[in-house]
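To whoever is on call:

I kicked off a structure prediction for a single chain this morning and the downstream step that reads the tokens threw a length-mismatch warning. I double-checked the sequence; it's 313 residues and nothing unusual in it as far as I can see. Pasting both halves so you can look.
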Amino acid sequence: MKEDPKHNPHDHLARKVFGRAKEAAGFFQAYLPPSIARRIHAENLHCESGSFIDEKLRGSMADLLYKVEDEEDPFFLYCLLEHQSQPDHWMPFRLLKYMCRIWDHYLQQHPNARQIPPIIPVVLHQGKHGWNTAKTLAELLNIPEGIKEDLQPMLPDFTFNLVDLAAIPFTEIRGTILGRLTMQALKAAAENRMKEYMETSKPLWQDLLQVKTETEIAHVLLRYFFLIDTSIDKREAVNSVKILENSQLEKTAMTLAEQFIEEGLQEGLQKGREERDREIVLRMNASGVDVDQIASLTGIEKAEILRHLASAD
């Protein structure tokens, strides 16, 4: 089934951009220690399929797993995009679970392996407020003081590489042109700073649009802003896009604005019809008319009638 970006626009944007080896390599090269970064290239970076996060958290997180085919020994890079309004206190524990799932998957594919490749966990935090909670697994363990020294060697512990967008100014975000634009967009979305984003990122947009093959991804970025917040004034958003001085993008923005405004009107009409039907059903039911008769007289589906009646209980 084709992915609908409306269901999770942050996830869709991150996968669309950082699923590309060039952009992913630029991101990791910018934010990992030099000894690791210099082993990562677009040519040896492969984005693996699938997701390892808990199903119930997929509305607030997205993940991407990469395998680095290093000349010496391969290793994995695991990036988790966290777009909750508040940092997840249990992030180290969640990462441990997800990393174990990755290793399980690896051993299923390599049943004769005697070792497992290392996984380097990276958290890209999109929240408006900076990261202010645990970064190591040890911080989550309640270890009695009397046995702490003896117990610690027996317990797992690790930290993760944190890229905290709230703590990085727009102009200091690093990576490829598209990677920087994407992370700036994620930051602007969390902080409601679209106009400032357009003004600050104008040179990057112009560089991106010089490459004709990147027109489609530019439109994906633009559409993201119309999806992240239905309260955004669509006409004001079009005015913000005009800052970029690109007629093609401006035309796309106007088309998107018209589309979303029309969808909003249709949703309003649908809601009005549902409220009218509910009122009719409840009034007829209160007068002693049974479900079958209501359906016959009004043309409202029986399932809808039962739903309206249940909502009134």
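Update from on-call: the warning came from a stale cache, not from the record. Cleared it. Sanity check on the structure: The chain has two domains: 9-191, 269-312.
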